[in-house]
Design brief:
Pathway: Plant hormone metabolism; auxin biosynthesis. By secondary structure, the protein is an alpha/beta fold. The chain folds into 3 domains: 38-74 and 267-339 and 453-507, FAD/NAD(P)-binding domain (3-Layer(bba) Sandwich); 79-139 and 255-264 and 343-441, Polyamine Oxidase, Chain A, domain 2 (Alpha-Beta Complex), CATH 3.90.660.10; 156-237, Up-down Bundle (de novo design (two linked rop proteins)), CATH 1.20.1440.240. It has helices at residues 2-17, 48-59, 117-126, 155-175, 185-199, 232-237, 241-246, 266-273, 331-338, 356-359, 398-405, 409-420, 457-464, 485-507; strands at residues 40-44, 63-67, 79-80, 85-86, 93-94, 105-106, 112-113, 130-133, 141-143, 153-154, 257-260, 279-280, 283-291, 294-301, 304-310, 312-315, 326-327, 346-352, 366-369, 375-377, 388-395, 431-438, 471-473. A 5-stranded parallel β-sheet has the order 12-2-1-16-23, covered by helices on one side. A 4-stranded mixed β-sheet has the order 10-9-19-20. Strands 15-14-13-17 form a 4-stranded mixed β-sheet, with no helix packed on it. Strand 4 (85-86) and strand 5 (93-94) form a beta hairpin. Helix 4 (155-175) packs antiparallel against helix 5. The N and C termini lie far apart (55 Å).
Length: 508
């Protein structure tokens, strides 16, 4: 199983056979039906956590109202298509992709791991069809301007040669009796056999290349000839080899990952179809007052100040905005909110007039580079059609993001295109249109993947996991896995479970 599907296949098979525990599903959501008079809920923010909260609470009889500061719902679940408004601070613009439903760009979340059970469960319940997204392609590239003369290398070769070189070291270590733990003769023979197979070594324990990385001859008609091996010292110089070798081993990136057919915002649409609660867009919260018997929220809607009184409040507003919103929350609580930093995740995408990457054998997957664009993603859908949307940059490091955030849109697109040219020949010549989302500049968001203060993570989360009176903080920001929709749902479920317990005690 390992030789066919890698470590993830082994793990999933072991789960199926009951040899190891499956991923923990989390606490089930249990909300008792509404009773009594206190049924009014105000939800601040129409992101995934807010939509989930409205969906679940109205199903058990609560009267919910959603206030959303933006012109749309979904939060960072934003898929761009032809004509969509990009609300970047100081640089508002519109997406100029062709008017084609399959030419879209997932600007925030773009993949769903198989162990994100809450999100997958909602996709099933809400009727959101999914397909598998190729998160890895061994024919995609690993590129480092400081290694191999800046030439892009196929990921398959990097992986195969890395395994070969390390397996050869294992063989040498066994022969030299270099292991701290004494190995029996049988153990040594097994380890030698394993490393020989794992690295595709010769009988003498030396790595001389492998056809696993490809062949220099036409392998359908001739004997396969291993590609030339990479220089191991040159590989060690590279800062991107770890991405090529280990990215698919990350628990949240391991195959298979999925995406909704037609774009990630199909999840937002699925919630919207099944929510009856009123949603007020362009409603910026001005103040939050937590009282003994409820919560009063003042907000600005279409130039008018309005007030809503509710029995309970679920707050999905980015934590770092709360210091600018008048409130009577306790100082320890507001200090915890203020300690969270805004992330600088960004993406750039290009409409390509030709799916040139397919001519290079790349069907989905990711290429990695040490340049500021970090990654190129290839679409898994609409194979062999004329055009496609390629992700031309994806970064989350502040140092990489700041230069792009400061650029005008055209300058930003040219910058990303020029770096793509170093990975694919004539890359920029295929570009017809481009779009970018710098999340730290997007109105009403001003960040993505909130950062917990280093060394104080437990303290901050222990405070925000709990309600402040009748006020509950929700969203992926109130989790240990910020940036994932599953974390947003986990946070909402946690808050609703506590809410249900609170209501039960009050009605006892």
């Amino acid at each position: 199983m390992a030789s066919i599907g890698g470590s993830t296949a082994v793990l999933n098979t072991a789960h199926a056979l009951g040899l190891v525990d499956s991923p923990a599903p989390g606490k089930p959501l249990t909300i008792k039906p509404a009773s009594g008079k206190q049924k009014k809920i105000v939800i601040l923010g129409g992101g995934i956590a807010g939509l989930c909260t409205a969906y679940e609470l109205e199903r058990v009889g609560y009267d919910c109202t959603i206030l959303e500061a933006s012109h749309r719902i979904g939060g960072r679940n934003l898929t761009l298509r032809h004509g969509d408004f990009i609300d970047e601070l100081g640089r508002p613009n519109y997406c100029n992709f062709d008017e084609d439903p399959n030419l879209y760009f997932n600007t925030g979340p773009a993949r769903i791991p198989g162990h994100h059970r809450r999100l997958l469960g909602y996709c099933k319940t809400l009727g959101v069809p999914l397909h598998v997204r190729a998160n890895e392609s061994r024919l995609a590239y690993c590129h480092d301007t400081n290694a191999f003369g800046g030439k892009p290398i196929r990921i398959g070769q990097v992986i195969s040669d890395t395994r070969g070189f390390l397996s050869e070291l294992v063989q040498k270590g066994v022969k030299a009796d270099a292991f701290d733990q004494e190995l029996s003769k049988d153990d040594q023979e097994r380890l030698m056999a394993f490393s020989k197979f794992f690295g595709d070594l010769k009988d003498n324990g030396v790595y001389e290349g492998t056809t696993r990385a490809g062949s220099k001859t036409e392998r359908m008609l001739d004997h396969s000839t291993p590609t030339d091996t990479l220089n191991f010292k040159e590989m060690l110089k590279s800062n991107t080899w770890w991405s090529a070798v280990f990215a698919s081993e990350h628990y949240d990136w391991a195959a298979p990952v999925m995406e909704p057919i037609g774009g990630m915002d199909r999840i937002v649409a699925g919630f919207a179809r099944n929510i009856k609660s009123p949603i007020y867009l362009q409603s910026q919260v001005q103040s939050i007052e937590v009282l003994d018997d409820g919560v009063t929220v003042t907000y600005l809607n279409k130039g008018k100040i309005k007030t809503i009184k509710s029995d309970y409040c679920f707050n999905n507003i980015p934590a770092y905005f709360m210091s600018g919103i008048e409130n009577n929350l306790s100082k320890p609580y507001t200090d915890a909110l203020a300690s969270m930093e805004r992330g600088h995740l960004f993406k750039v995408a290009f409409q390509m007039k030709k799916r040139f990457w397919e001519e290079e054998g790349i069907y989905g997957g990711i290429s990695y580079t040490n340049q500021n664009i970090s990654q190129l993603w290839y679409p898994s859908h609409d194979i062999h059609t004329e055009k496609g949307i390629m992700l031309g940059a994806y970064g989350w490091d502040t140092d990489r993001a700041l230069p792009l955030e400061a650029m005008e849109l055209d300058e930003r697109l040219k910058y990303a295109a020029s770096q793509g040219d170093k990975i694919h020949k004539n890359y920029s010549s295929y570009i017809e249109a481009g779009a970018s989302v710098m999340w730290a500049r997007m109105n009403h968001m001003m960040g993505c993947s909130a950062g917990l203060p280093e060394g104080r993570e437990d303290e901050v989360l222990s405070r925000l996991y709990k309600p402040e009176g009748r006020h509950f903080m929700i969203g992926d920001q109130v989790s240990r896995h910020s940036g994932w929709q599953e974390a947003a749902l986990a946070s909402a479920h946690n808050a609703m479970n506590q809410f249900s317990h609170m209501v039960t005690e009050k009605n006892a």
